[in-house]
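Repro case for the chain-ordering regression, as requested:
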Amino acid sequence: MRSLLSFWASHSRELATLLAQHIVLVAVSTAVAIAIGLPLGIFAARRPRLAAPLVAVANVVQTIPSLAMFGFLLPVPLIGGVGARAAIVVLILYGLLPIVRTTIAGLRGIDPAVREAGIALGMTPRELLRIVELPLALPAIVAGVRVAAVVAVGSATIAAAIGAGGLGEYIYRGLSMVDPTVILAGAIPAAALALAVDGALLWVERRLSTRAERRAGFRAAAAAAAVFVMIVAGSAALVGRASEAVVVGSKNFTEQVILGELLAQSIERTGVPVVRRLNLGGTLICDRAVASGDIDAYVEYTGTALTAIFHQPAATDSTAVYAAVRDLYARTGRTLLPPLGFNNTFAILVRGSDARTLGLRSIGDLARDAGRWRPGFGYEFVERPDGYRGLAAAYGLNFAATPRVMDLTLSYRALAAGQVDVIAGDATAGLIRGLDLVQLQDDRHYFPPYDAAPVVRADTLLRHPEVRKALEALARSISADDMRAMNYAADVEHKDVRDIVRAFLAHR
Amino acid sequence: MPAIRFDAVRFTRPGERLVLDRLDLTVEEGETLALVGRSGAGKSTVLKLVNRMLVPDGGAVFVNGRDTREWDPIALRRSAGYVLQEVGLFPHMTIADNIGIVPKLAGWPAERVARRIDELLALVGLAPGEYRRRFPDELSGGQRQRAGVARALALDPPMLLMDEPFGALDPITRAELHAEFRRIQRTVHKAVMLVTHDMGEAFALADRIGVLEDGRLVACGSPPVIGRSVDPHVRRLLDALPGIPHA
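-- result from build under test --
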């Protein structure tokens, strides 16, 4: 509890920004969902034959898991990609169902005599809707908006996976650091926000549906709306500060977050504002984001770029690989800046105790008794051409068990806890030090080089020459030991990434 | 020229039996016509044909000498005040707003609307100061009916259409409202078309009574004429009246 409070205290500005982003995501998506869902509901309420299929479609949309929905939208132009825009599209889709459904139910629930009286009095259909039907259906509609908004608060936490920001940022960061404090730092405000939204709208709904308080209710609703607009406008101002900013992304593991922060702080030192979209997702998400312009820069590894992004056969000479990858990037409007200095190759890891008692030194040693090892790998390692299958062929590994597929970061813990026996981690992982793990030598040079280097959009470098200068100054400045130490500080000592990077830059 | 004239009107509900069959009738200005018949005799349909909530399948309905099909429906409905059995007051509006909504939509200035509301409340016997700001569910059934009549009279329309307006009330309240209605009608002098299943009500309120049976008008005349009728349908309705015990 104390660590949580001190985390909030030391991250108060960041917390405010993330909260503001979260509110903007929810407010914009809910507002658009109302703007679309209300007319749709009114339309459907008058055409019963249309209402059933419409609600059915909205129901199906609702059942698509939000993470999958973000995935579907990644390659879609205009509305897809990464960032707040794609997140808002997904949140709108989720908000539509409750609003459409309650609008239909609210309008259908009106006493037919009341509607008939309106017609007989000579109201036009439009007057009838405005004066009689909508006000009577309003409590039901507000109930739908309440559901939509609360769902949006929850789903918006997942939007952090595609770099939309918001409180989910802490949840993802906490997951990748395996630090419950950081997870709670995002989860608790998100839950509080959901409760606050729910409570506020429930209050409006109650006031609207009790007849005697109706007048007061409208006034109260107007006041609540005014306060809400002020909060949203403030949040938007906070979020929208930097439109000329350089957007820095990163993949979703600790080292990448540190490197993203490193790029960000280096750029900020030149006076150019930076928007951080760290913890985006895997390699392919970051690549797509930098190609589409959703982000301007992130750090990639040469071997990963060669095989996973450009689908070239793996190569082992690090200089040749760097040159090849730089040319491939240059052809697609992106610039690969000089390497940062360390090689984050895959590390085949075992427990220190196993290594010592069984005398394991190289990956080949695993082949002697392959049947006894239970491997556990991250999603990417299982899929990639330079991953598990090639490794098994190169070393003649025939594991008895099929590899358990698990989150990369969790696999270190799973190994230390004895749930699996072999994992493929990163050579620079801080946890290697913290959990007494041993890296087996790749004596057959199976793994290609994975030199870390910033990938930046060429047009961004043209606009900001000072950014190129600042990032080139990072060349060869980070050794594998430096990186492992920074990872250790973040993953094991739970230090704040911003502080770690600040200290590193200051020491240079 | 009669205010309302039905000329050989036929009406069929889609896929159902004939509701009205060659109906001829007239309502003169200042006259109250009561249409009496059993449930399902087509009484409410007759009213809805007048303000064009329905249009006839055959024949024509004339209001002020003009076929309803040639009227602008909004203008027609505003010149025919409508009082429903279920009243249909808007539950989310105060009594004043319920009465004032139609003049407001017709573009009256706010003070004129406010004056009209008070005038009408007084006319139907509801003290304006006490009832203006009440909501419909804070009123008794009889008070709601009075408010419904006030709303129908708001634009001072030349016609008043009343669909079982006093049906759901207890006998004493109903008798009070009957007296009230006769007083109001002496003041406003409208062409009133009233439908009811209660012959007693028709005798209490109407200048002329029409009897509907299976979509056809089987008798029409002044109360004494109807009272002496030997038509079996009319007799059946008359016999349903509670007998008054002799002293």
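Ordering looks correct now. Chain A is about 65% helix and 10% strand.
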